[in-house]
Amino acid sequence: MIGSILSLLVIGTLVFLMVKNTVEKPEPIESPVTSLSQANELEVAEEGLEQYSPAPDFTLETLAGETVTLSELKGKKVILNFWATWCPPCKAEMPHMESFYSKLTDEDQVELIAVNVTESEKLGISEVENFVKSYKLSFPIPLDKTAEVTRMYGVFSMPTTFMIDTKGRIAQKVIGPLDEKTLNELVDFMD
C-alpha cells in the first residue's frame, strides 16, 4: 500500500515538473517562419487586405473585461495575433509571445494583442481562461466571440499575425507560429 502511494507521488511529481518546464520555457518552434527574410517571402494578405492598406478597426472585450479598440493604438507598432486554444502551433507560439511581451517597455511603443477566436472554442471562454492561466499569459486577450473580426481580417488558419505600423497600416501578415527572435525582427522592420 505504501509502495503504491509512493509510486503515485513520484509519478505525480514527474508529471508536474514536465508540465511546469513546458509552460515556463519556450520551446524552439519548428516553423517555416524563423527569420525576417522568410517572413518577407510570404504573400501578404492574399485576400482582401493588402500590404500598407489601413488595418480594419475593431473594438473587442478582453478576457479581463477591458475594451481594446485598434484605432486607439495608432502611433504604436501593433502585433495583432489570431489564435485558438485547440491549435498546436498556437500552443507552441504562446510562450515565445509571453517572453517577448514581458520584455517590452513603454519606450518601445509596441502593443501585443492576441485575439482569441472564441467562436471556435468548444468550451467557450472557460477554455480560454484555463489556457491563459496554464501558460501564464499577461498580454491582452480580446475575445472574438462571433469571429466577425477574424473574418474581417480574412484569417483562415491559425495562428495568423498582422504587423501593424505606427500609421495604422498592415505592414506584414505572417501565417504560422512566431518565435521571440522573429517577433523582434518584425517589430524592428516596421515604421
TrEMBL record:
Domain Thioredoxin: start-end pairs: 49-191
InterPro entries: AhpC/TSA, Thioredoxin-like_sf, Thioredoxin_CS, Thioredoxin_domain, Thioredoxin_ResA/DsbE_sf
MF GO annotations: antioxidant activity; oxidoreductase activity
Keyword Transmembrane helix found: no
PROSITE patterns: THIOREDOXIN_1, THIOREDOXIN_2
Any one Pfam family match given in the protein's UniProt record, by short name: AhpC-TSA
Domain of life: Bacteria
UniProt keyword annotations, A-Z: Disulfide bond
Protein's recorded name: Peroxiredoxin
